[in-house]
Every structure is written in C-alpha cells, then in structure tokens.
Records
---
Amino acid sequence: MIRTIAEIRDEAVGELSSERQQQLEQFLTPMPVAEQAASLFSYTNTPARILDLGAGTGILGAVTASRLVHGTRVVAIEQDQILAEYAKASLRQVCDDVRIINASVFDVLLEPEFTRVILNPPYKKIKPMIIPTAGGGVKVTNLYAVFLAIAIQALAEGGECVAIIPRSWMNGEYFKDFRKWMLAECSLDALVVYGSRQEHFKDMDILQEIMLLKVSKRPQTNRVLIYDDASPAMPLSEQHSIEVPLDSLLLGRDRILRVQQQDERLADFEPLCNRGMWVSTGKLVWFRNRDILSLTETADGYPLYWSDNQCGSVAKHPVECNRPQWVTEEVTNRNILLPAGSYCLVNRFSAKEQQRRIHASYIASPVNFAADNKLNYIHSGTSRTTVPLDDAVARGLTLWLSTSIIDEWYRQISGSTQVNATDLRQLPCPEKQQLMTLADLLPVEENLDLGKVDQVVGRLFSWTKMV
Ligand SMILES: C[S@@+](CC[C@H](N)C(=O)[O-])C[C@H]1O[C@@H](n2cnc3c(N)ncnc32)[C@H](O)[C@@H]1O
C-alpha cells in the first residue's frame, strides 16, 4: 500500500511544470523522509484528526494515516488542482474519511481541532509580515514560518505537529520573534537534523539544510529528542539519538537553538556580549553608496574593507581585487565610518564545506575606515556606539575565533550560509585578560597554522583532549 503512495508521488514529480514548481515551491517529499516524519508522532489507538498543509500528493497525510486506527480523518489543503487530485488518490488508499480542500491555506479558516498536523511547506522568503496570534502577532520573513504558525494554531490541546523545514529558524535575527512565540506556544519535542544536504531530496534539487521538527500543544516536555546526524537511509529508531532538557539547547535572550549540547570545555566561558564586546555589521551598503566608492586613493578619502581584504587571519589594505578600496570624503556625512583602532573582522557568509565557518581577521587601522555590510566587526562598544578593542584583545579574539572548538560550536547552531551577528554575540568567549594572554603566546599572521592555534589554546585552558 505504502509503495503505491510512493509511486503516486514519483509520477507527480514527473508531471510537475517547472513554472508551477517554482511558483508554488513544489518540492515533493520522498517516501523515506515521509516515513521518518510520520514516525515522530506518538502512537495512539484512538482515531486521529489529521491536517496536511500544502499537501502536494498527500504523501505526508497518507503515511501518517496509514499508521493510525480506523476512523481517522484527514483534511488536506493544496492550492494546485492537479496535485490536489493526486492527494485524493493517495489519501483514499489509506483512509475512508478524507477531505481535500483545493485552495490556498490563507483562504481556509481552521479550527484548533487537529490531533496530528503534518507539513512540508514552501520555503520562500517573503517581505516581513505579522501573523495574527493570541498574543497580538509575530513577525515572520519566510513562508514556511507562516505555514508552521497556521499549523500550530490548528492543533487541538495535546495535538502534535511534525514539519519538514529548513534549519534557518533555529538561529539568527530574522526568526527571533518566531522562535520565541513557538517555544512559548508549544512543547519542543524532537529535532532531526540530516547530516548531508542533498541526500534526502535527491530528485528535487534542494540545496538548503532541511530538518524535521516535532512540537506539541502542551507544556514543554522534560526532554527533547535529538538526532543531530540523521540519514534518510534507515528508520530513525535504528539511528543514534540523545534526549536532553530544552534549556541545555537554548542560548541567550534571543533563544537561539543548537542541536547538540555544548562541549563541556566551553562551560566556563560567558557569551561574548557579556565580556564587554559587541558584534555589529559593516555599515556600508555598496549599492546605496555607489557615488562615494573610489578606485583610487583621494586626498581626504578613507579605506574601505570588504571580505576580499580578509587575507587569512589579518585584514590588509589596499588589496588587488575588483572592488573599490576607498570611499571619498563625502562618507563623513553618512554615519558609515568606524573609528581608527583595532577590531576583529568576521565574514557574514560561509559554506558548510569550508574549513572554518567563522573567518576572523585582525585589523589595526591607523585611520577611520569603512566596512562593507558583508562583514561583521567586533568592538568594545554597544549596538549604538563603536569603540575599538584593545589591540591585544583584538589579536587574542582573532585567535580564539579561529579554533576548531569555536568552529564546532558555530556549526551546531547554524545550518545556513549566514554568519549572523546575533549568533556571534552568544559565542562562548574567554575574559579579555585571557585573550590578551593568548595574543602574547602566538602572533596573528596571514597564514595562521590552525593546528597550532588549537594547541596553544588547549594548553592555555588545560584542555588535554585538544592537545
Ligand atoms: C514543498 S511542497 C510539499 C508538498 C507535500 N506536502 C510533500 O511533502 O510532498 C509544498 C506544497 O505546498 C503547495 N502550496 C504552495 N503554496 C500554497 C498555499 N498558499 N496554499 C496551499 N498549498 C500551497 C504547493 O503546491 C506544494 O504542493
């Protein structure tokens, strides 16, 4: 029976029009992932009321229903008429009580009556919008967050929701409000993060890191079930998992979530923002300031740093690249310049495949300068004022951010290509005095030997495991 639902899905994949697929984000879930998603629901021997949002071929609702007792009801909402027909065919194989609603989820009024909600929504970015909630509304910037909020609000008391979504909601500024709302609204029960990016959606050309999330409408459970390196190749019950309290996964007021517990060697380190430092984003947005970019140095101009100026662990200026290396004097009227002094520059984007997700470079500028907004910079000020770091602190911090333990820490919380200032502020950090000691032990050079940095840091903090 299940094989037939898989065949219906595969047939529909072959018939998707590329225009419609792009427009409605029709990336259909393969059967192994659908089975893993449905396996996260608790077993119940009473009939369920299932909701499948953005149902596609109905594969998720059908696999969920096939595991439940007779008398279960499925409501599937799908905007695409052809897929809605496929959904009818799939769901009728496993359930007698099926209602297919061929409409947009935004045009359907749902009561909070469902005991099982399952979805693999569209992942599109949208203009920031407020979703109405009992508490007044929550700001979202992605369609999957809107679908998930609708799903959660359709849950009956005690109901469970499983979603196939990107990992991006777990960290960063954009999803901050959504995270807070969701964690207050329901219990976070399970997180399943796939080890490889493409393995599970091979025929769908999906490049984002995708995960399974299970939440339920009840007070927070004591333990969250975590699979931090799952594979769709075998049932989840045969894969490694851990159960940990939610608090051990949450970071700071922004409620950043990581998928593993923190390395115990970092236990004594406070977040960077508690060490008298702050992470900001470069203030120059090049396309809004085209008129002041300059290819040559002018008498009253200032240096401009891009990620191209990050030469290994030091920032250099000027460098040969195809970006203007100066801004004209006019910049002084635009609240863009940073005061002369020492800082640590950090990239804002990096891929999982890179040796280090965080690329830190020490900069000591004798003059005021501008930084492109594709760079973060760490300083001693606040969100409103920029104050340079003590020079030895800037060097020590650059070394600290180049360690493998910090790289592992960052990979645990970020599944996207962004390196967010919000996340960096929560990064475990030694005291300033310890950073200065570190700077005395090892010079910051362009071609820093990262193995050596690990050794020196390991010795300084007596981490025998790391040396
Ligand atoms: C990522 S696909 C997943 C389909 C199916 N749930 C699955 O797992 O295979 C998202 C589905 O949502 C549908 N969709 C997109 N926007 C929608 C909307 N506003 N209302 C209802 N369905 C929508 C698309 O047509 C597509 O079938």
---
Amino acid sequence: MELNDAIRLRRSIRKFKKDPIPESYIYELLDAARLAPSATNLQPWRFIVVKTEEAIQKLSKCTPLPFVTQAPLVLICCIDHEAFNERGIRVQELQESGAFVDTPLDNTDSTKYIKQSQMDEDTAKAYMNMNAAIAIEHILLKATDLGLGSCWVMMFSQRKLKQTFNIEDRYTPFSLIPIGYADQQPIQRPRLSLEEIIIHEV
Ligand SMILES: Cc1cc2nc3c(=O)[nH]c(=O)nc-3n(C[C@H](O)[C@H](O)[C@H](O)COP(=O)(O)O)c2cc1C
C-alpha cells in the first residue's frame, strides 16, 4: 500500500472479527516497530505478544475496554528502562556506522555527550515514552498496510498488567495495541484543518 493511503485509511478500530492473523504478520508488525527512529537510537520499546486465548482472557482483567480483548492479537508495548543507561553504546554505534559524518557529533566523546544530556526522572520518562510512541505509530500504519485494524490504547491498569504477565521491574507497560481484521468501517474522524494547525508561514 502507498504510504499516503496507509496514513489516510488508518482508523482506530474498536470492533474486531475473530479471524486469526497470519503468524508472519505479527513479525512484520514488530519489524515495523523495530525500524522506528529514536533519539540517540535509544530503541526503548519492548513488546509482549498476547495471542493465545488464555493470555487474552487474562488481559481482559487489566483493561476496562472489552474491545481490546476481542482482538485476536494484542501487543503490549513496554518501555525498557535499561535502554536509557545504554545511550553511550547507542551513540558510539551511530558514530561507528557513519551516521554523524560531517557533523559535530562525529567527534564528540559519547560518555561526555551522555553526561551533558542528563535528565531528571520525569523528563527521562517523557523522553522514553516519546520514542516508544513512534514505534507504535509504525505498527498502526503497518497494520493498515496489511489490511488489519488496530487501536492505540492507554486505558489499562499498569499494576494488574505487571502482575498478570510477570513483567520485570525494568519494563513499564506503556500502551496496548489490539490488532485484528476490522469489523467496522469508520469514516474519517474529525481533524483540525490545515489553517488551524499552521501558526505562521515565514
Ligand atoms: C496516545 C494515544 C492514546 C490513546 N488511547 C486510547 C484509549 O485508551 N482508548 C481508545 O479507545 N482510544 C485511544 N486512542 C485512540 C484515539 O482516540 C484516536 O486516535 C483518535 O480519536 C483519532 O481517531 P483515529 O485514530 O480513528 O483517527 C489513543 C490514541 C493515542 C495516540
């Protein structure tokens, strides 16, 4: 599918058919996430793939939204806090891959760079979430490309989810992404006009 079509046709789907998704699609979706851009190539996204009926049943106790667990597949996107501590390695990899050629970043000492960009806990959390959000959008667009419906869901109990799926402390569940064949064909949702989102053209 053309990118433009994927962007225009994507909708948040809240009604799914029971039909299973081909296994290969699951890896195509995750691979789309893997290729997302991230600050200093942080890649803080990690996923729990919920696809058995038993696991989906368990998940239903963690969200007040029944449509989430009517989907045959739910990806739980988690933030890996360890990723933040590996920024130095990521910057070094980028330097070695030539990403920063002809920029001041090419010769910057990666340890010094990381020291200079320290953040308080709240800022670091927002930073990690922002990066994971990009991977999620890649998944939503890839789902559309594969003829699947999806929805980005943040209404769930983190505590219950961590307990139910034995999620280690280094991971924080960030979003749920139910995915399946759509059982509805929503019209485009309201959007602001271009005039409303352009502050100035200078
Ligand atoms: C960060 C984020 C969180 C969202 N959380 C939820 C949610 O918890 N439940 C839900 O039904 N939809 C959720 N959505 C979907 C939005 O409601 C939806 O994207 C918006 O209404 C526009 O509709 P569209 O996606 O069909 O274009 C979320 C979307 C985003 C980007």
